[in-house]
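haha ok so turns out i had the wrong file open the whole time. this is the CORRECT one, sorry everyone. sequence first:
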Amino acid sequence: ITTGPITIPTMKKGGYPGDYAAAVESCASTGGCFMPPIMGAAGFLIATFLAVPYSQVCKAAILPALLYYAALFFQVDNYAAKNNLAGIDKSKIPNVWVTLKNGWFYIFAFAALIYALLVLRVESWAPYFATGLLIIFAMIKKETRFTLKSFGDFIIETGKLMGYVIAILSAVGLIVGSLSITGVANAFSRELVLAAKENVYLLLAFGTISSFILGMGMTVTACYIFLAIVLVPALVRIGLDPMGSHLFVMYWGMLSYITPPVALGAIAASGIAGSHPMKTGFKAMRLGSVVYLLPFLFVFDPSMLLKGPLYDVLLSALTAIMGVVLIAAALENWLYTIGPLSWTNRILIGVSGIFLLIPNLFLDLAGILITTMVYLFLVFYKKTQLLKNSINAYIINYK
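then structure:
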């Protein structure tokens, strides 16, 4: 709702349909919850639950977040290539240096926030420091300077927001407190392990369903707090990585924002774009499809959380990036240097992308082999067609 009025009309001016622009915005905004260095509130809570510095949470979350945004970027880029979108005229784009000149001082507030979070490690006070600096910087220019009325509105809106947050957290606090005091939380996680009969896949399926359903009616933060108490201990008890388990719950808690029938983020964006809500929701689901796979990957293989030997981490990152590029090509039906694909080639490219995304050496090699074969075939076919067209043109000219 905050960034959509700026980004959605800009994308529509560039040639993207309203529903596509709204889907892109909803996916991009939702990803802010798990994108370092400034993650959503759940990121700070993970650091609290695990008793680790917030910087460790950022380190673990960076690769999955970059893969998510890379998948989104490549799909948007492929769509533009497929539909010959030229973008906005350069004369209408503001000059970078002029823009920086008018607001360069705001960067200091952002830098101060990151410094307070990662260096000083004062997570509770960091937002107050950054907000104070923003208010001071806003007073520099006449256009953004507070008046008595605007400052009063600012205080009132802040009070409304705080009241809303306090009401949610109070209710969640009562639920979590009652679960902890009565011992139901530990009993529930133990029962989940017993119900799954120590089958890790079944337990993750339970976790997926629980996180998704709770995410429909609660904020990501509230959903995460509840499941961190109830579900995460069961995942850790069965042998999964603690950091991966917490991130797993957080990811699936926010997926309801881009997944129909709820898809709150997509529906809000569709209101700005004037598009059909459900059509926008399903498009957002497709654009964000990689995020449905990522939690299962990093919960099994900590190398995607930048844990383990450097060789494993680099290999996982490299193959995952290749996989994201191929999955985006399959979803948008456009492969770089090749162009449109047949359904058979789309399926092969998509399967190869999934193989490369999974941190497994055998599957990675299989994905590379399939991709190479398909690519060589397409290049050969394309050159054959060009040669055939050239021969036909020569015959016609000769006649």
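The chain has 19 helices and no strands.
again sry for the mixup
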